[in-house]
């Protein structure tokens, strides 16, 4: 007699089981927590959790198979980030609930301090780049997207926002200072903040040449202890040099007065990894949704956006985010 057992469809169960299994481990939960607002390479995560690369690779593979993390290539490195839950799909609600619970976890102090070390290493790589390339900065920058390609869009957005006569501005990372004359014309006072003495010297020369009497230059790390505030903060092609861009937007929000505007010009996500070597970029552009999500998490409200397509295939996004006028809390 031929006894054939009917086959059971396990596929759906398998998917849910993979999700539960991936979430059923303290280390993996902490990895998800660490990835809340940042993305890291496998070596960085291994450093953050004080373990070997192969052990971390195994855990990331389990998380990736359960679609709890996604990968993105940045040059030669692969960066891991959280995958967004799709609540309409099988397991999506569980995924969303898991992330919500994970976000309430406090990371162990040693993990937090090692995240700081990784950010420090990224920042040092970026600063080292600008100290080496100051002289050929403009040529290097123009390889991808130079100020002439986004100047008009930023100016159009600035003019549309219609700042008052007494309004002030901060430009973070002015580079060689080429945008400062536009700001100086539109604001009563402008502060240019840069953490590279070599770049600030180039900006100083512009101020001198153009007799910009209302611009002050400040050598400072914009992410560390700046106590200024202004009606407008401009960040042109700087965010992709910051070690932790989501955190950086929180710092930028603190520089805004209530009702103030943050203007961010950035590359859209791209896959031209040579930009890391040639232009010192830590990130290969940004997804439009990520910028809006990070800005919202920083208490800002997304406003208008302009997009500029370039002949070399890159796309630039010029974004406006506003601090609500009623948000008068000291941050
Ligand atoms: C690619 S350049 C952008 C220059 C200019 N905004 C433009 O659009 O051409 C980035 C600038 O940000 C500065 N920078 C990077 N990290 C910084 C930080 N943490 N604080 C202040 N300036 C920073 C660099 O020194 C450099 O001048």
UniProtKB/TrEMBL annotation:
Q: Which InterPro entries match?
A: ArsR-like_HTH (IPR011991), HTH_ArsR_DNA-bd_dom (IPR001845), Methyltransf_11 (IPR013216), SAM-dependent_MTases_sf (IPR029063), WH-like_DNA-bd_sf (IPR036388), WH_DNA-bd_sf (IPR036390)
**Coiled-coil regions in this chain?**
none
Classify the source by domain of life.
Bacteria
CDD domains (alphabetical): AdoMet_MTases, HTH_ARSR
Q: Where's the HTH arsR-type domain?
A: 8-102
Q: NCBIfam families of this UniProt entry?
A: HTH_metalloreg
This one is known as Metalloregulator ArsR/SmtB family transcription factor
Q: Which organism is it from?
A: Pseudomonas gregormendelii
């Amino acid at each position: 007699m031929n006894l054939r057992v009917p086959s059971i469809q396990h596929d759906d169960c398998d998917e849910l089981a993979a999700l539960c299994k991936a979430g059923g481990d303290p280390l993996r939960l902490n990895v998800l927590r660490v990835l809340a607002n940042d993305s890291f390479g496998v070596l960085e995560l291994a450093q953050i959790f004080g373990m070997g690369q192969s052990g971390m690779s195994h855990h990331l593979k389990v998380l990736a198979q359960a679609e709890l993390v996604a990968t993105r290539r940045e040059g030669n490195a692969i960066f891991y980030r959280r995958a967004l839950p799709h609540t309409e799909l099988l397991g999506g609600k569980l995924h969303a609930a898991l992330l919500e619970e994970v976000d309430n976890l406090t990371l162990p102090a040693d993990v937090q301090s090692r995240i700081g070390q990784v950010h420090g290493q990224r920042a040092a790589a970026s600063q080292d780049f600008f100290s080496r390339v100051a002289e050929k900065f403009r040529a290097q920058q123009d390889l991808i997207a130079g100020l002439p390609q986004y100047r008009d869009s930023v100016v159009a957005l600035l003019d549309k926002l219609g700042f008052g006569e007494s309004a002030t501005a901060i430009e973070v990372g002015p580079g060689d200072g080429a945008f400062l004359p536009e700001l100086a014309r539109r604001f009563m006072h402008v502060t240019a903040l840069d953490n590279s003495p070599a770049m600030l010297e180039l900006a100083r020369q512009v101020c001198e040449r153009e007799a910009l009497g209302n611009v002050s230059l400040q050598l400072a790390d914009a992410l560390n202890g700046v106590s200024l505030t202004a009606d407008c903060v401009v960040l042109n092609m700087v965010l992709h040099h910051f070690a932790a861009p989501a955190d950086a937007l929180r710092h930028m929000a603190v520089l805004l007065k209530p009702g103030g505007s943050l203007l961010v010009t950035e590359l859209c996500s791209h896959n031209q990894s040579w930009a890391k070597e040639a232009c010192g970029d830590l990130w290969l552009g940004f997804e439009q949704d990520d910028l809006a999500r990070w800005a919202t998490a920083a208490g800002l409200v997304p406003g208008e956006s302009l997009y500029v397509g370039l002949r070399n295939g890159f796309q630039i996004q010029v974004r406006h985010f506003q601090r609500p006028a009623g948000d008068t809390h000291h941050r």
